[in-house]
Amino acid sequence: MRYGEWVEVRRDADTGVAELVLDRVPAMNAVSTAMARGIAEACAALAAAPAREVRAVVLSSTHERAFCVGADLKERNALSDAELGRQRPLARAAYTGVLTLPVPVIAAVHGYALGGGFELALSCDLIVADPTAVVGLPEVTVGVIPGGGGTQLLPRRVGAARAAELVFTGRRVAAQEALSLGLIDRLTGEGEDRTEALALASRIAANSPVGLRAAKRALRSGFGLDLPTGLEVEDAAWRTVAFSGDRAEGVAAFNEKRTPDWPGE
């Protein structure tokens, strides 16, 4: 199903894996106002889907040489200050939509993932990239700052000092260095980022839908809290699954030595 002209969602009913596809090829997936609206709407639909039907999401690109080059600066150049201000909530909705998806999300990155494009990847739980990937947050080189979560998400990945160096210089980082710095999580063979991301998503999606959502909630909500508070967050998530149909099915399947048929409740 398409959301606007440049965003598509593909869903595999057998595995529970959904793919959110960036498909603005002529502009290397530059995020325009219309594309931001499509991302936000697609994420809202995925978030509202039953747990059993959507268990993991892959964020991918149809462009051969780019994941996403960031904000559409040609469009931005034509906007007045007032128009830019009105666009801001929609842009935030796109990035927040990816960040707050309740299921595990994997970015499949090749080619350029710069500025807002890299922020889309950072909004995912895992980043799988091929050797052509080039990532970075160059916003200060054009007079702005990362505004899609980059100043908050990057330090959580690589630490405050390393994030500061990357944001303040705006430099681009090639795939191998990105892996060593922790900017990406897995480096594939060339052209294999999407295939490997989908395979990883399928492996994840084989697990309890309720358990996956609760685990993500505990990981995201507990990060940065003091340990006692974080453990309370974990306990609340545990209680969500402990009395669920998924827990009952998982324990029964284990004892009966069979594959679980998760109710997703």
UniProtKB/TrEMBL annotation:
Q: Which UniProt keywords apply?
A: Lipid metabolism, Lyase
SUPFAM superfamilies xrefs: ClpP/crotonase (SSF52096)
Q: Which Pfam families match?
A: ECH_1
Q: Does the keyword rRNA processing apply?
A: no
Q: Which domain of life is it from?
A: Bacteria
Reactions catalysed according to its record: a 4-saturated-(3S)-3-hydroxyacyl-CoA = a (3E)-enoyl-CoA + H2O; a (3S)-3-hydroxyacyl-CoA = a (2E)-enoyl-CoA + H2O
Gene Ontology BP annotations: fatty acid beta-oxidation
Lipid metabolism in keyword set? yes
EC number(s) in its UniProt entry?
4.2.1.17
Q: Give the GO molecular function terms.
A: enoyl-CoA hydratase activity
Q: Per its UniProt entry, what is the enzyme's top EC class, as one word?
A: lyase
Q: Which InterPro entries match?
A: ClpP/crotonase-like_dom_sf (IPR029045), Enoyl-CoA_hyd/isom_CS (IPR018376), Enoyl-CoA_hydra/iso (IPR001753), Enoyl-CoA_hydra_C (IPR014748)
Which family does the record claim for this protein?
A: Belongs to the enoyl-CoA hydratase/isomerase family.
Name of the featured protein: enoyl-CoA hydratase
